[in-house]
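Exercise 7.
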Amino acid sequence: MPYSNDLFSKEAPKPSDEAKEFMKIEDHVLICLESMDMSLYHLYRIMHKAYNYFPELLWAYIALKLISALKYLREKGIMHRDIKPANILINKNAEIKFCDFEVSKIVEESIVSTFVGTILYWPPERFDINNIKKFDDRADVWSLGITLAEIAYGKRPLGENLDIKDDYILMQREIVGLRKEEFTQKCFKGYPDIIISFIHKCLLPYDERSKILDLCTSELYESYLWLGYFDRFVTEYYLNHIDIREPKSELESSVFERFTQIHTACAQCKVMHKVEDRISNIINCNNVCEMLSVAAFYDSIFLKIACMNFIELNAEIVINSERLLYVPYNIFLKIISLDMLTANEFDIFEATRKWVTKNETETLFKQIRLTLIDHKTLLNVILSSGFFTPEEILEVAKEQVNNPTGMTCRFPSLFN
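Solution. The predicted structure, written as tokens, is:
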């Protein structure tokens, strides 16, 4: 069942474009845009403090979003010309937006020759005031490379010991004489070669440097494109828990373990349509229910399809497993419908799920589906709900013992 989606063109990260209020103060017009949580400068400082590094997956997610944003600007004929971590905003919905377009310019005939921007992120060609050669979006590509290096490194990668205001000449020499191999070795310790190679392409001399559209077809962009399916992963795991180093709960631990497994499989893909094949190869009877939980939790359609295709071929084995508790209720019913065989616990499973659904107890739902629950614990959960009488639960427990098929275990309050 093939599935495809243009991940980033649908909701390309644009500049902060949701205007809230307009006001005029003397000769100035102020535009109030939507509030964002922090800049990438603040984010990478928090992440490095929490983790002592910047997680590769989060770095790749940000890189892809920024590439897509620059592509969007290019389509509108705009160069930003002042790309740096402080001018990139992010919120806990995993939205990333450029800001501070004060020095941006509508590109005329794809060339710009003015001398603007923040010096630390300038490309070498901007320092040559005698050079009449005009430049295009490759200037933004250089700034993007330096910005992404700063995120990975955790601090200013160039001019670490310089005062930019006072040491302009020394800063210029360092940028013009930058050796990309030494630079990436310093900034990207522990990162895969595909990321280092991408940064090299951003930091080449002007005539050899990639343009924005080249980045959109780069090996890094295509290899990590699958991350677009997991906006909620970035939100739930990284951005909402940036004050910790380890997962807080069994839910986070389990999902992160499976997500890492998915990443290992997907990172080798050079084209997106092969991701489904990679995913299919790592799904088995021991992890398919957890994979489905990940798919549901992070709205991953392609992962859900891969899991359901596997279950169609292995329904009997999957259904006769307590790991069925890992999947959401609606998917659980679909799995049951694939095969007439059921586990001994079928009716208790369904009764518990109906109770959780009716009471909308999200926390307990996660606890139930991420814990291998024995009969005693499961019955205690049902009892504590107050939804069934102790007598009803006792009758079910007796019936479960006397009838191991489980097909006649019924809660009268739900199955009338």
